[in-house]
Design brief:
single chain; 399 residues; alpha/beta; Rossmann fold; GMP Synthetase, Chain A, domain 3; 4-stranded mixed β-sheet
């Protein structure tokens, strides 16, 4: 579906969704009434800007009956709970049909990327499936999960048994695993395709994963609220928005940004009716693509911006390039703002690397030069930077 047909489809879905939310979801009725809006005022995607955005904090303050559509039994819904790494966990509720439909959209993209019906798939993730779908039990689209918090040797041993054609996982976990692989592992664990999702994929992580597993990496930009938001076009660095299931706006200071500009991702889920998400502020900073329905860059969460002593702020993503350039010996890093004037950098070296104190000091000096004299940067070597309880790795955050 392209061009005018896609725009017309989005408009039809949006109008029906807005009318449904106004009539059946108390939260959205209050939101619309407070803004002096009626469902008929929203006739196309261009009218979305008239609707006030909704944040995670807004929904957390509501009882389930205020954000779940009337007539839907909450106990019958599929529950996806966010990890709460932002400090704001939220339960996302969908009907089984809505959940399967969104998974079908993801499978459709995987088929375009080369997935085959008889392929073995493995995922190094934190959440276990409640039970495999029927088609996997029939030998079609076989899928096995390995918990990402297991020791590396156990994960690699399981991957040697599965020998997946398609491997999925968190970028930080797969990057870490790739550095632990020996030649015997590389001969056996040879996927055709590796996909990453659920956390930021940095350029150094991509290089390490591709070198370790000998396969191209395709990054998926997703969230529990929307499932798949966009996927990376192989070899292009451009993300294609899943426009049949989500309307993705990039907003800065209340306006839609121009192509090439960055802003916050504000999404509307076109197939979430049990618990609608209309103009939901995801809290991620992204760059709008030059072509329609594309994104150029996924920079990370808005909440992760570092506020400096002079009141200015930067996104730590801007520090990653200089850091990696200065330290090609890195396996992992973590940039933590402990105070406005103090940033701590934890550095984990590749197994065969032995960085000198001078090399560590060079990293510190490079970042301090970027941040200015009002900020003190401390750099230290660490054996490993553990993942969070959710299994995700955070390359930077504020305390």
């Amino acid at each position: 579906m392209r061009g005018d047909a896609l725009e017309a489809f989005q408009a039809r879905q949006l109008c029906a969704l807005v009318r449904h939310a106004y009539e059946r979801v108390p939260y959205y009725r209050r939101l619309f009434d407070g803004a002096g809006l009626r469902p008929e005022h929203v006739r196309s995607v261009r009218d979305l800007a008239r609707i006030p955005p909704t944040s995670r904090a807004d929904l957390q303050q509501c009882e389930p009956g205020e954000i779940v559509a009337r007539g839907v039994d909450p106990s019958s819904l599929v529950v996806h709970r966010t990890s709460g790494s932002s400090g704001q966990p939220l339960s996302i509720l969908r009907t089984a049909f809505e959940d399967r439909l969104l998974q079908a959209y993801r499978l459709k993209v995987l088929f375009r990327l080369g997935l085959r019906l008889r392929d073995r798939r493995a995922a190094v993730v934190s959440q276990r499936l409640a039970g495999p779908p029927l088609y996997t039990r029939l030998g079609v689209l076989r899928y096995e999960e390995i918990h990402c918090l297991l020791p590396a040797e156990r994960i690699l041993a399981r991957l040697r048994e599965i020998r997946p054609h398609v491997l999925r996982g968190f970028a930080g976990t797969l990057s870490w695993l790739a550095a632990q692989m020996d030649e015997a592992d590389r001969r056996v664990i040879r996927p055709r395709l590796v996909t990453t999702d659920s956390e930021l994929l940095t350029s150094d992580m991509r290089r390490r994963i591709e070198a370790g597993f000998g396969a191209p990496v395709v990054d998926f930009y997703d969230s529990h609220e929307f499932n798949m938001i966009a996927w990376e076009r192989p070899g292009s660095g451009v993300y294609q928005v899943a426009a049949q299931s989500v309307i993705a706006e990039v907003v800065q200071d209340g306006r839609i940004v121009q192509p090439g500009e960055s802003g916050e991702l504000v999404g509307t889920a076109l197939h979430s009716w049990a618990m609608p998400f209309i103009r939901f502020r995801l809290g991620d900073i992204v760059t709008r693509g030059e072509a329609p329905y594309t994104l150029q860059e996924i920079q990370g969460r808005l909440i992760d911006r570092f506020v400096l002593p002079d009141g200015s702020s930067i996104h730590p993503f801007t520090l990653v390039g200089p850091l990696v350039h200065e330290a090609p010996w890195l396996l992992q890093y973590q940039i933590v703002q402990e105070r406005a004037d103090r940033i701590r950098v934890r550095l984990v070296a590749l197994p065969e690397a032995h960085p000198t104190p001078h090399a560590v000091e060079a990293v510190r000096a490079t970042l301090n030069e970027r941040l200015g004299t009002s900020v003190r940067v401390e750099a230290e070597l660490a054996e490993r930077i553990p993942a969070s309880e959710s299994g995700k790795f955070r390359p930077y955050y504020r305390v």
